[in-house]
Each structure stands twice: as structure tokens, then as C-alpha cells.
Amino acid sequence: MYAAPPEGLPTKARAWLTREGIQLYAHQAEAMERLMSRQDVVVATGPSSGKTLAMALPIVAALAEDPTATALLLYPMKALAQDQLGKWTELARALGVEGRVDVYDGDTPSHRRPRLRAEGQILLTNPYALHQYLEWHHRWAPFFGGVRYVVVDEGHWYRGVFGSGVALLMRRLGRVLARYGADPTYAVASATTGDPSLLGERLLGRPVAVVDRDGSPQGARTWWAWDPDLDPERSLFPQAVDLCRFLIHQGSQTLAFLPSRRMAEALAQAVKERLLAERATSDSGSGSAVASYRAGYRPEERRELERGLREGTLRLVAATCALELGVDVGGLDAVVLVGYPGSVASVRQQAGRAGRSGRDALVVYLPQENPLDRYFLRRPGELAAGKVEIPVLNPRHKELAVRHLLCAAAEFPLRRDELPLLGAEEGDATSLEKAGLLATTPNGWSYAGRVRPAEAVSLNALTARQVPILVEGEVLETWDEHRARREAFPGAVFLHQGEAFRVCSLDLETGIAVAEPSTDGLTTKALTLEEARIQGPPSGPTSDLGLGTVSIRETIPAYKVLDRGRVVDVRPLDLPPVEFTSEGVWLTWGRDSQTSRSGSQHGALPLATPSPGGLHGAEHALVALVPLIALCEPGDVGGASSVHHPDTGLPTVLVYDAFPGGIGIAPLLHARVRDWVGRTADLLASCPCQEGCPRCVLSPRCGSGNQPMDKGAAWTLLRAWIAAHDG
């Protein structure tokens, strides 16, 4: 669906559209009109729908008319900023903004930085870099004073701890810009999300207009759910190889998404070998028909692969999610999803790489062995047209707010009326003052600590203490202490950009972990024991649902070593427990009230005393399906169950945010509890196993070895709870 350019679009921009032969889609024209009328906007349309042009054209046109105006563009990763630089530079050159567009981040040579700050008109950066630069805002005075637009690209990536930290960073940015007299308009580009308005408001801290009616042409997509169990003699991987080979023989240009770098490269190599054996194609360097694509390739390598996809010389590319973000690869015939990528939003992004410009396309989904993957095998319609998750972020998280309060005070003195902006209260500032970290001045609280807070405060962590992961003396990643205890224990294997590393040592006193590359193909799973106590409002005898504060004590007595998913060893661990306070949602079963209500009103079987195995199975299944409701990782939540919980006095299943202070997952589960519990019960009903399996109730993270476990009782409990809750 096309639309005419907005009336207020400058003449140069209109002429450029005519010269390039570009017709605007309806959503592009709407977004442009809103931006030109100074409305903050979230553009949440499908992949390859022209979101960049919808934002860039009115912004560059406005800057061309006012050489003193500037624009700040934020991308979640350095590589993406580099990818997008060419598009902004080309458009800027066409409209007369020449030589004033560049990337400014940690890789920018120091000798170029002063000129970019003084003369740059459009600068691309990332949140990590901006977090460091804000304290030196006086150096940015020429640029910050002219900021007319702020663009936040890939908005759906800002979720969880990272999203919460970036939301507070955006509030600090607004405060700095206001100091220099700037009052910018904000534009957020996002993939389809469950609530783009909520995402925009939480991320920016201000109301936003939403543009989400995609007007770009889309061909018909055929969705095909592939059941690996129909060929029980062969595992998923060789079946995926055969499928990709078949698509190539059918003449379909195909993009396969895989969960790791190693799998992507292995698939590409296996398909190449099969094709060579059949003499159907040849491996002749850059012109070969099959390749892999992942993070870590040099920019020129990525550009070559993208060109091969656009021009059709590449017939199959096996990729990680690196190709999900903002890379223009043209219209493809087929997309193969090997494993559920973690969210329906990501599925839509990946599937949207095929069928552009009105072409028909095929999307094939191959599930792995876990509850989420198997849930969608039986319900592929939800992947194609079902609800999209709501990104979870909590800019009012107390620990994060206090740390960003210190950052703001280091930027310039913080007034009392600015505390709510950062989710803080006067008592927080007073406590920091008593601790010697803030000092009262005539202009407000000023930072008084010895260490730059921007250096100490991580956008990715909820705890102040950070643990660097060292590989050959270099920092590979930095994790907060809670995550390090769970995932960087000695012997643990973790992935970094799809590459496997094994932890050699973890010293909690010095806060340093040392790791090395791992090439043996083994993986690890921590066995976690959880004790959860409810501190918030307790459930009464007639209540079946609660939401409140919980205290968590986690211990990891051992971990499993797995070879291709098969347990080959269980090794003990001696680590101190992790203790923290968080948010939780709990379900209870009041035996008397629920038996009568479910039996008389809904025709369900009377519910006997819930068994430990039934509650345990319900807990595992509920935890596994949390990502259906909230856009988060499976490890972002934990669970506990008890036949007689000491804080409710009832059979109870509790699910909590696995972060100190909570990150907003539990409240969202509470708000959508009927959908969550109902879909979990449906998963148990549809799984063909009898006793329970890794596809429904068995969890590799379970510290008690999945004992006791009763899948049938778990389903009965969930159905009875739904009946009672509906009643």
C-alpha cells in the first residue's frame, strides 16, 4: 500500500524520491509526517519494510536546511552502526549534507574525535559508548546543543537488564541535551512487538506515537512445520542438511538460521560436501553456492556474502542471528529455522528475510528437543500469526536507578525534582550522601566518589560487582557476580558469538574468571537448588494467585557434562550460595474451594491433594514457557514448588525473576496468567510422551534430577487451576 510523500517534506527530499523512482509505503509516509510534526514515534513494522528510510529522509532533509542541527543515532552493536553508515552517508550526500556523517565509538581514532564532535552533523554510536561520553558532555557542546533528532534502532533488542539500563541512559541523555538547549524528537525503530507503545514509553520515558500498520508488499508465505520424529533413525542435523540440499535442487535461494556459530558452519560444510559428491555444484572460492555467515567475520567478508545473496550467486547461507539485525540481503525464496530462536519476534524477523517485494516464499521450522521448540511444532500458526511477546524492561529498578543516579550527578549536579526521572527518591540520594558518594552543593547533589561511575556501572548488570572473563589475558566478556556464579563456575562451557569457551577458574575474591577455547563439542548444565520465600502479600486460603517480593537462595551442588545432549558425567561443585531479593508470581491450590468449583462449574475431575511430582512438573513447564509471554531468555526466570509452602500454607508453584530486584517479568506473567497457564497445560496435553520428557517437564537445570516428576498430575493441576481461576 503506497502513499504520497507528506506535504511538508522539503523539495530536495521530494526530488530525490522522484529521481530514485521510490514510492513511499503508507507507514513510511505516516512516520515521516509524525517526525516532521515533532512527534516522538515508534516504527514497528516487518523486516525490510523501509524503516530506515522512513526515519532518515525527513531527518536528513531537515538537517540539510539547517546546518547547525544535528542527529544522534543509537545502534545496539558497533557492527550494525557500521552497516548502516553507508545508507545514511549516501542519503546525506544526495541531499547536500556532505562529509558530516560518521560513526563515533570506541573504535574511532582519537585524532578524529574532536573534529567529529565539533563539525559532525549525523553521528552513529551505541549505548555503551554514549554511557561513557555523557560525563564529558562539555566536549560535545557544539553537537549536543544542535541535536534535533535522536534515533534508537532495533528497539526490540532493548529488554531485560540491558534494556532497563539503556532506558535510564536515555533519561540521562535527555537531561544533558536539555542543559544545552536541545529538545529533540525521538524515533525508535523496532521489529513487531506485543506492545510497541509500552516499549517506546518505557525506553524513552515519554509518550510515543506508534506506526505499526505495515504497508510494504509481502508475498504469500507458506509455513511448514518439520517433525524430526518422523525419521527416528536420524537426528535433527542431518535432516536439516537434507532439507537445505533439497531446496537448492529446487532452485530456491535459501537462508538457514541456526542457534550457534558452530552449527552454522557445520551445516554449510555438510551441504557443500553433499553437493560436491553429487557433482551438482562446485566450491570455487567466493563464487561458491554455499556459505556461512556469523558475527566475527571481517566487514569485507560480510559485505561479500551479502552481495552474493542480493545478486543470487549464493544459493544457501547458513547464518546465526547476526543476519537478523538490519542487514539488507534482498528477497529470498526460503528460510529454514533450525530451532526456535527465543521469541516470536525473532521468528518474524528471520522469516521476513524471504518473500519480499511481493514474492511468494517458504518458511520451514525444525524444532529442537525442548518445551518451547516442541510447543510451536504443534502450533505453527502461532509462529506465523500469533501474539508477539512484550519486551520486558524496568527503568524503575532500584539498584539500577541508584547507580545511574550517581552517573547523572557526575555529569552535573542533580536537583531534587530530577530524582523521579531516574526512578529514585530523596532517601536514595541521602543514603549515598551519607556513604560519601554524593555531596550537597548550591546547585544540587554532586558526585563525590573517587572512581568514575560510568566505569563502574554496567548497562548489562544488576549488581555493582563485575567479573571479567579473561581469555589469553584479554577480556572476552564481563558478567555481574550473580551470573558468574551460575554460568562461569570452573568447568562450565559457554558461548560467545557462537564460539565455545570452557572456564578454567573462578576467583570470587578477586572477581576474575579465566577461560579457554573449547573444541571438544561438550556442553555443561548447572544443577541448581532453589529455596524461595515469599516476603510480599501472602496468599490466603481463598486466593489462587499472588504477586510480590520473594527472597531467593540458590546453590549449585554439581553440573552435568553433555555430549550432543547426552549426559556423560556429573561433577560436584563447591560454590557459595547466591542470595537475593526479587519479584515473583505464585499459584496456589486450595484443596476445598478448588475441588468444588472445578467439579461443579467446569466439569473437571475433583482435585485430590496435589502431589510433589505434579507440582514439580507444573513448575518446570510453567518456567519453560515464560518466554511465550515475556520477551526474555529461559534462564531469566527460576522456579520452586512445595506441597505445603511455609508462606502460603498451601500447595504452591512460584516463578520468579532470576535477577536481584526483579526486572518486570513477574508482573507481566501475573497480568497474563490465564494465557500463560492455559498454554502450558496445552503443551502437556499435546506432548506424546507418557511419563514426561525434555520436551515438556524435564529440565536439564533441575538440581534434584527431575525427581519426583508426574506429568499427568501436572496437567491435572494446571487444568484445575484454570477452572478455579475462571470461576
UniProtKB/TrEMBL annotation:
Enumerate the InterPro entries for this protein.
DEAD/DEAH_box_helicase_dom, Helicase_ATP-bd, Helicase_C-like, MZB, P-loop_NTPase
- Please name the CDD domains in this protein's record: DEXHc_Hrq1-like
Q: Give every Helicase ATP-binding domain span.
A: 32-211
Q: Name one Pfam family in it.
A: MZB
Task: Identify which top EC class this enzyme belongs to.
Answer: transferase
TM region positions: none
Domain of life, per UniProt, equals Bacteria
Keyword presence, Hydrolase: yes
The record's section on Gene3D superfamilies has: P-loop containing nucleotide triphosphate hydrolases
The Gene Ontology terms for molecular function here are:
3'-5' DNA helicase activity; ATP binding; nucleic acid binding; nucleotidyltransferase activity
Q: Which positions fall inside the Helicase C-terminal domain?
A: 239-401
EC number per UniProt: 2.7.7.-
PROSITE patterns noted in UniProt:
HELICASE_ATP_BIND_1, HELICASE_CTER
Mind telling me which PANTHER family this protein's record contains? ATP-DEPENDENT HELICASE HRQ1
- The protein's name is ATP-dependent RNA helicase
- Could you tell me which species this protein originates from? Candidatus Bipolaricaulis anaerobius
Organism ancestry? Bacteria, Candidatus Bipolaricaulota, Candidatus Bipolaricaulia, Candidatus Bipolaricaulales, Candidatus Bipolaricaulaceae
